[in-house]
Structures are given as C-alpha cells and as structure tokens.
Amino acid sequence: MGKLRLTIAFGLALVSLGAIVWCTVAARPVAGPATLKSTPAPNPWVAAAARADPDVGWARKATTEVLLTRADTDDLESVPEGRIDPRQRQVKVTVVHRLQMAHEDPLTEALRHGSGFPGTLQQVTDAAFGAVKVDGPGLAPTTRLAPILTSDTADTTATFTVTLLRQLPQEQLLEIDFNAPNAFPLIVTSRTIAVLPGEWTVLRQEGITPQREQEERLEFAVGAYPVSVTLAPDSQGFADVAVEEDFSWATALGVLTAVALAFFLLRSLGRGWWERLPNRELVVGLALAAPTLLIPLFAEEWSAIAYVILFVAVPALVLRHSGRVLPTSPPWNTRDLLIVTGLGVVVGLGMLSWSWLHGQLSGQALLAGGAVAALAAAGSAIAFSVDLGVRLVIVRLAVLSAEAAIGLLALALWLRALLDGVYPPDSTRLVLALGWAMIPIAAIAVATKQWSRGAVVGAVLVSLLVQGWPTEWLDAGSWSLAVPQPVPAIGSLPLDPIVRGVLGLLLLGFVMLVLRLRRLGGDLSAIGNPVAESTMIAVLMVLYITPSGSTTLADIDVPLPLLAITSIVAWATARWLLSGPRAVVDEPVTQEQHRQLIRAAIHRRLLLLAEQELYRFGRGRIGAGDLSMTDFEQQRTAVEAALRAHGRHPETAFATAAACTPWHNGVHAFTVSLLLSLPFTLVYGLPEGVDLTTFVFDGRYLITLPAFGFLFGYFYPRIRGTQPMTKALHLTAAALLTELSGYLSTLAEPDIGAMDKAQVVGIVVGQVMLVCIGLGLFWEWRIMHLADEPWARVRNLRSVRSLVAPTVALVLAVGTTAATSAAGQTVDRILKGEQVTMTFPR
C-alpha cells in the first residue's frame, strides 16, 4: 500500500509538472508594440514637388536668414521659473526660411492646402531647407510660426519662421549646423544662407565659401551638404597661453573627504566586529562584488553580469552572513509560508492575465493547464502526507502545493515572454526588487539581533520604492507591453534598475549607521565611546556630501561625487564640539539622583545670589550702623559654609544626561530641531525624486541641522559649555560654520549682487540661530521638567537678561522670514543649489 501511495504521489507531481511544461511550450510569442521609429507616411510636400515640371523646379529659389539676438523678458516669459540662470547668457536665434516659387508650381497649392499643419511644419522645412541645429541646452521647445504666403504678378513666396532659445555660459562658443535637406528628389538645388551675428563674431566656417563677408552679415550659397558656423561673443577674449591648474581643490577635498569618511566608517565598526570571521568574509565578498557593478559603464553588453551580482549574489551573500551571525533561525512557520505563496499567486495571476490578454496562451489552455497543475500538485501533497494523520497539516500542504504550482506556471510563462523579448515592462523591476529586498531583510535582522515579520514587510515595501514610486508602478502601461520610454536620470547618470539598486544600498548603509547609534546609545557609556563618536561623525559627513559634476573614466563621461567642503567642515566642527575642555560630571543613574542634583544646583544658585546681596548691601548698612561687623561676619561665614556643603561644582548638574540614555536624548533633540526647521521648507521647497533614494537625497537639507541637534542630545555631557544655553551657543557656532561653508564659492561669485548674498546669509544665519537657540531653551526646560522643578526657577520671564537669547532668536527668525519673502530668483537658486540636475519624464 505504501508503494502504491508513493507511485500515485509521484505520478500526480509529474502530471502537474507536465501541465506547466505543456503550457510553456504551447505559449506563442507576443507581438510587440509598434516601434517608435516606424516608416513615416509619404510626405505630400515632396510628392507635390516631384510632380512639377523640371523647368518649374529649377526656378525655385530658397533663402535662409539666421538672426542672433539677446533674449529679452518677453522671449523668456514662457520659460519655466528657476530654469533661467542670470549668470549665463540667454540667446534668441530666429531662423527665417523663404521659398520663391512660380504660380503654376504644385508646391504652392500644397502649401495652401496645409496638409497636416501644424504637425508637419518641421517636416516641410527640413525637407526643403535642411534642419538648423544650434548648440547649447534649450530653455524652451523650438517654436514655429504659421507659414506666410505672399503672391504678386511674378511669383509666390512662402515664409517660415523658427525661433530657438538657448542658454550658454558667458565664455562658451556657439555653433550653428546647417544640415542638408532630407527630401529626395531635392526640392531646391541650391540655397542661400545669411547669418546676422549681432553681438557675436564669426570664429570658424566649415564647408563655406562666402559670397558676402562683413562684420554684421555673412552670406554664402550651399548645396545638398551640411555646413557649420562657430561664433564667439564679442566680449570674449582668448588668452595666448592656457594656464593649466596643476592643483585642484575639488579633487584634493574629495580625496581628503573619502579618506576621512572611510576611516570613521571602519572605526565605527569597532575592533570586536573585525575579529569575527563571518564579518571579514562579508567584507571580502562585498569588495569583490563592488567592481562588477561598474561593468555597465564600460561594456553595456555585459550588463547582465552586474544584474546577477547585485540582485542574486549579494542577497545570497548577506542572507548567508545573517544565518551565521544570528543565534537563532528565522521563526517562520507554515502560516507565513502560506501567506508568502498566496501573495506570489496574486502576482502570478497578474502574469497569467497578461498572457491571456496579449494572446500568449488562450483562455481555455490557461484554465485547463492551471487547473490540472494546481489539482495534481494538491493531490500529490495529500498522497505524500496522508500518513501523518493530522488533517490541518494535510490541508495546508495541499494548499501550499497548489499555490506553488500556480506560481511556477506564471514564472515559466514570464521566462518564456522574457526570452521572446516581449514581456510586461515592470515585471523585471518587480523581480529585481524582490531579490534586492533580501539585503535589507538580512541587514535589519543582523542590526536588531532578531528576525522580524514587520522588518520583512517593511524591507519589501522599501525595495519597491527604491525601484520607483507607486505612480510609476501603477502606470497604465506598466503591465501592458514594453514601450520604449526615456529613462529618468540624475545628471547624466541614467536611473536604470542597477543604479537604483546601488543608490538603495548607499541609503541602507546610512540606515545601518543610525541603527548602530541606537544600539550603542542604549547605555550611558556610549557618551564616551570612540565607536559611537566615529559613527556619529560618519553620519554627519554623509549628510553633507554633495555630488557634483562628472569625470572621464576610460573615455566615458561618468558622474562621480566631488565631495563638498561642507563634509570636511562638519567633521571638524563635530570634533571641536566633542573635544573641548569640560568639567568632571557625575552622571545620575536614576531620575531621583537627577532631581537631587538639580535641587542642589538651584540651592547653590540661591546661596550665590544671597552672597552677592550680602556684599552689595553690607557696606551701606555697616556704614550706617544698621549692621555690626560681628553680624556681617556671622552671615558671611554661614553663607560660605552652606556653599562648601554643596560642593565646588554643583552647577554641572545642568550638564548631565539627566539619567536618560544617549539615544533617548538624541531622538528628543532631533525631533525638536526638525520641527524648528520645517518652516524653512518655504525657502528650499519640498523634496522631489523619481524614487525613494533620490527623494531622500533631495530632502537632506531637512535633516542636516536636526542631525546636529541629534549630536547635541546624544553627546550632551561632552558638548562644550556647562549650561544648556552655553552648549547651544557652541552648537550654533559649529552648525553655522558648516552651513555657510557650502555657499563660500557662490558668495565669492562677482556676478551675484551684494543684496542677494546678504539675503542668503540672513536666511542661513536665521535658520541656524532659531534651531540651535530654540533647542537650547527646550533642553533647559526639559532638564527642569525631568527634575519635577518649574522652569521659572532658572529662567525668570520677568528678567530682561533671561530673555536676551530667545529674543535674539525671534528677531532673527522674523528677519529671515522677511528675507525669504523678498528673496528673488537668484537667492532661490543659491539656496536650492545647482550641484544635481534631476531629469525625468513628465
């Protein structure tokens, strides 16, 4: 009986597998979408020209006039705000094409009919006159006026006007290319072109023999071949000797920042971390995998290797590492497995629906094959497990097997569509995202020392956001047919799945640093722990790194992070805050100890005030005879004895961690600093991005100052100063120096007005002062609140002296608001920065 049951079980399993194989073999390749480069319809303009008599065709005359002028306010009115850079040159290029024809020319009638206008205007002008290309980034799309027809007794003239807007650096040359007409046969045999340079001077002519050459006009005839003209600004001079800088500050700062950051990252791990063998193996594996991720930059045809490494090998490596490091196995049970496979079936049903809708497999074949595969797999599971005798287990195994069969069928059809080259566009990104999700799942498990179902769900959601926003995933065409679309980019770096995955790894690394601070910050010893200090400095340096520009690597233009000076300054100022002289602080362990220390400090303040009053009024009362020397000495001795009884440095009670852990203090300081920074989103704007990593990167300005606040709370006893407000003033100096360092090169720019520079400095200073002084006041209140003492005992709201700091912060905040409301376009561009240009399809 046992052999018969096994035979039935294996037989049903083979039937299920056979149904899946049959569906895969029977699947037909899906017809792809119409290519974007399909053969255009016959040009009626060219067809009309071909019908003309040869003598009529030879009688046509074509002229092109190119006028260069400075773009004025009316010209730039349609340009999106923020795209115009006042430090660059805005140029308007007006191209006027004129075609003179005989009345009986068929082209005249074709123009009057206007077939396809205005959509075919570019097709008409390129066919007759050739395309005119102007170098430089465009401020706005090329515009074309409606053609103007003028007739007299002799002939008819058609005038086409084309306007181009360009933005160039002040010293850049301007190149105009006149391409050959693309009509065959030619509509005109020769063309006459005139260039009116205006504020420009013709520097180079290629393929041109001028008929008229003057300062204000260059005129030449050209046939069916391309020519080009290069112009230089009238105000641009050329040095006899080009001075090459042997030393680059950007490169030097980049190398210094990279070395410092690498040092702090290695130090943040600690010696104990490096002593464990699995950790060293992980580092070696990641070091071997990292160079392979550069393959798409050098050999695009070998990009598949990089995809396999990032989305298969690296997840397998980190899962293996977590399995060796964690003391327990994952607590997954049969219910978890059923949920996961159920979600897989939901995704699989989407693939099966795609196969049916696009004719990969007929509906009857899909239903029959899916039903046979699922039922046979369930029957096989029942036959294998019937001897267990537990009905619930048998049912679960049957359901699990059926779900696995449906998922395997969907996977097989997806692979078949992938091999045929036509597949759901976002299906590959989904598979890659699920593979990449294994990395954060394992990383969070290692960081928290446990496996968590919530972490698994969060990691999957994050991995999906790394590969695109929900609007991108749910786009109407995302699950239809692969239609070629422009790829989003950061600068010149295309955001394909592998780039997004690498950026996601960098974001994950930053999150791991923060989780390490959380783990270390659970104990008061972290305040003086060099590992925690190195981790905090590494976090600050990462937040202040600013990618900018590109470099050439093996003749390929590769965007690389030219690390900003702000990262170096953040390192220096953080070290300055934490390495200053400080008094010996007896850290309270409990809230009761903190309360006693604060009360003793308040009592000592009272005694100091009493001693001051005794000396201030004692002289007058002694001189008037109201107080004898004996009574004065008795009172002075009593006050001094009371002061000695409270210790020499009781004021250090306001420089302790208040019996709270560093992480707890850091989170409170970060939250308050973030709330104080939020109003300045009116200045910098809300973050933007095409996925999670680009969004987080664009929103770094929201957490840079709060990160300094986190440093303030985490290492509060080590911050320079003995009181919350003195510590806050030191924090203000460090944060202000770091924030302003990012604008040094811009503030030194001579083309920016002094008022704009003053507004920028006012906004930055106001923000830093408001955040830091506000944090100091909050910390003073918090220390008193934790000691169950009223805040008024240390800051008397009726005293002018006690209100100096908050008044200064309020005045600066109001001034900042006024500067913000008056900030012009230049200030807006300076504050938002121009280091990274993000482009993506609308």
TrEMBL record:
Name of protein: Uncharacterized protein
Transmembrane spans: 247-270, 282-299, 305-325, 337-357, 363-386, 393-415, 427-447, 454-470, 498-515, 527-546, 558-578, 667-687, 699-716, 728-748, 760-779, 800-823
Superkingdom of this protein's organism: Bacteria
Keyword line: Membrane, Transmembrane, Transmembrane helix
Organism: Nonomuraea polychroma
Coiled coil start-end: none
